[in-house]
Amino acid sequence: MQYKPFNSDISLSTLGMGNMRLPVQRLGTKIDRTKAQEIIDYAMENGVNYYDTAYIYHFGESEKFLGEALKKYPRETYHLATKYYMMATKNYKKVFEEQLRRLQTNYIDFYLIHCVTDVTWKRYMNSGCIEYFLEQKEKGRIKYLGFSSHAGVTALSAFADYTKWDFAQIQLNYFDWFYGNTRKEYKALEERGLPIIVMEPVRGGKLASLNKEAEKLLKEAHPDWSIASWALRFVKSLPQVQVVLSGMSALSQIQDNVATFKEEGGLTEKDKEILLQACELFHGQFKVPCTACRYCCGECPKGIQIPDYLDIYNAYKAGELGALKRLEQVNSKGTPADCIGCGKCQNHCPQSIKIPGIMKELAQELRRA
User: Fold this and answer.
1) 24 inside domain
2) Which of 179, 182, 266, 295 could cysteine-pair with 348, CB 3.0–4.6 Å?
3) CA dist., res. 159 & res. 116, Å (int)
4) 3-class secondary-structure state, position 43
């Protein structure tokens, strides 16, 4: 496992374990604790020492599971990261105490203000929560304080300048680097000397499976590399990156990722040229930038599994034959036709996707089919 010094006291594994996409029981949303424990144990055995979760992941079960899964290991052998999300509750003091209980610890190593956006950044600054968490840091109950951002460069920069943060977390992957604003966000944090924790390096799994033309190009260049490993190699080659989080839901995924992070270096300039060529071959797959974080699902009054439908929408817009036929196969209480356009989903979407409009379009297409 590769490590990077975070400061003079600790080094962090370059691969971090994300706990937003743990394996779930068949036809359900509850964490499959046996399979998830196998993943955690493999991570620990192979030197992963950074474990990221949040108050809302798996509807609150992720923190509880992680606290139980890691309690058999000495506390000093791993670093816990979790987050406060204002859109879930405004009672940050209560949330913090509950998180300590869930994680079965008396301190959090890396604590984050969760999902800073162009809408929420000022709300966080005016809420008093940042000052409260700074107080907890002084008391030793938080070791390092940072934030995770889905904001544009202007809001990101303003929030980064609000106080002396220890680190920042952003969505960073080669697709957003080539086609989005990620490069500018990275530069803003680099200029401020903030270590970067990377989320969505494989864009919610979207960069693990491309179209045939793009995969053929990458496989010809490096037959032994998985498609997902291209994304991880790109991100870990950036010097300001401290930890690359991967939300692993199967043992095979962490085995592949651990193998990738055993190797030194990332991509050559030639590799990056090939990757850009691959991007040009498949970028039409991403009509909407959903990463399947499922923040949108928790408050949907109709129980619509929105990311599953957005995945089909992308396939449909990319011209996949028969994509709409998959709409009837989604395991969801509600369907696009049930959407009432309340907008609760959109309020929680880090990618600012106009979900109600897409649900309406899918419902219309299904009626025509």
Assistant:
1) yes
2) 295
3) 8
4) helix
The pTM assigned to this predicted structure is: 0.85
Range of the domain at 353: 306-368
Tell me the C-alpha distance between 150 and 350, whole Å. Answer: 6
Determine, yes or no, domain membership for 301: no
Tokens linked to 98:
């509950």
Q: Which pair of tokens denotes residue 194? A: 């903030």
Q: Report the domain count for the chain.
A: 2
81 touches 142 (CB < 8 A) = no
Whether residue 84 contacts residue 107, with contact meaning beta carbons closer than 8 Å, is answered with no
Question: In this structure, is residue 122 part of a structural domain?
Answer: yes
Single residue among 254, 284, 314 that ends a domain in this structure: 284
User: 271 and 316, same structural domain?
Assistant: no
Q: Which residue has the tokens 């129980």?
A: 303
Could you tell me if 214 and 330 lie in one domain?
A: no
Measured distance CA(309)–CA(307) in Å, rounded: 5
| Distance from C-alpha of 189 to C-alpha of 153, rounded to nearest angstrom | 10
The answer to whether residues 149 and 259 belong to one domain is: yes
- Record the tokens describing residue 265, joined without a space: 């270096």
Residue 123 lies in a domain: yes
Per-residue pLDDT of the chain (369 residues; tens, 9 = 90+): 999 999 989 999 999 999 999 999 875 679 999 999 999 999 999 999 999 999 999 989 999 999 999 999 999 999 999 999 998 889 999 999 999 999 999 999 999 999 999 989 999 999 999 999 999 999 999 999 999 999 999 999 999 999 999 999 999 999 999 988 899 999 999 999 999 999 999 988 889 989 899 999 999 999 999 999 999 999 999 999 999 999 999 999 999 999 999 988 789 999 999 999 999 998 776 677 777 777 888 778 888 888 888 878 877 766 665 677 788 778 888 888 889 889 888 878 877 788 988 888 888 877 765
Cα angle for residues 231, 235, 236 (degrees, 5° grid): 115
Q: Are residues 272 and 317 in the same domain?
A: no
* Separation of alpha carbons 334 and 252, rounded Å: 32
